[in-house]
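Q: I'm writing up a methods section and want to include an example of the input and output format. Could you take the sequence below and give the corresponding predicted structure tokens, formatted cleanly so I can copy it straight into the document?
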Amino acid sequence: MHDIKWIREHPDAFDRALRRRGLAAEARGLIAIDERRRQAIAKLEAAQARRNTASKDVGQAKARGDETRAQALIAEVAQLKNTLPELELDVENADEELLEELSQIPNLLLDDVPEGADSDANVEHHRFGAKRSYDFAPKQHFELGEALAMMDFETATKLSGARFVVLKGPLARLERAIGQFMLDLHIGEHGYTEISPPLLVNDDVMFGTAQLPKFADDQFRTTSDLWLIPTAEVPLTNLVRESIINEAMLPMRLTACTACFRAEAGAAGKDTRGMIRQHQFTKVELVSIVTPQDSATEHERMLACAEEVLRRLDLHYRVVTLCAGDTGFASQKTYDIEVWLPGQGTYREISSCSVCGEFQARRMDARYRQSDGKTLRHVHTLNGSGVAVGRALIAIMETYQRADGSIEVPMVLRPYMGGLEIIARTA
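A: Here is the clean output for your methods example:
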């Protein structure tokens, strides 16, 4: 959410920032709506003040014995009482109109975000490791999983429809092991606090992290008007909604491993095979709540925490900075970690780490009290995948596959697998 006062004071800068995202100028229209809102507020306040004054004057007129004046004032007060609800409604409608318009406008990008219209303009930051070589043609994860009889898309379709999967046996355990490993790393070494949040949230919570209203069609909604979370970012970030935090409590670093749900699982006809784009998936999420002066360094720290997961798993990846046209709605700047998938022969996103500034905090009304004990400011929020469990499973399967179709278990995961070293078909 944007500060209309800042927009009024910096209309040209606001429009320049929108143009970086390929959007039309909005400042003039927003200021016009705000002007109508301010006029409505002024009329309401003037009417309230006149009602109060007239009410006092009634008593004074009666005390002077001026009954004619008193009756005229009483009639005026009655008329004002009838008018006030209409004026209050005008203010309410103006507030809602401004909120609706502001809620549709994405965050403003940081100056160092690369220019560009789409993912082709993303800038590679660095790489870890190297692509493995194989003396056989590496297979894709779904080929491996189906041959092992541990990845069942056909049964999942019978149960739930397209873009679901049933994992069995050691592959199911491997998925669980990956999530547990990530949590232990982030909690034990990176200083995050584990949270077990609700998977169903209300409209206000979805609005707070900017899933609503713009992306309502991408979400699953229940018959009781709750939403299945698309990411644990939603409940974790909203833990500080409508609150004032003491600066001494910051930074807050939170993590959760949850099921996630997305109704829109990608472009039609794309990634229809396998687990790349699913309606239900598991992800370890990282969220930080920080002061404005710490958000830039926290962004780099969060990226390093997510990277460490892939380094421990010895998976080849690269980090890219998203360009202006590819940066998400709520983000000021985003790093994507793209893991190499030998079976696909391409890099695929496995984590996005974003700094959102005060954009989400304004929508949530989340503030902190500075150390002087008086000054209130909006917190800054950050979120990142630490990392997507399903895609990590895919990357492990394709990277650690062997010629006979079996899969080697990475060393760091073996303690979580009861010492199992190789996943192979048993029958």
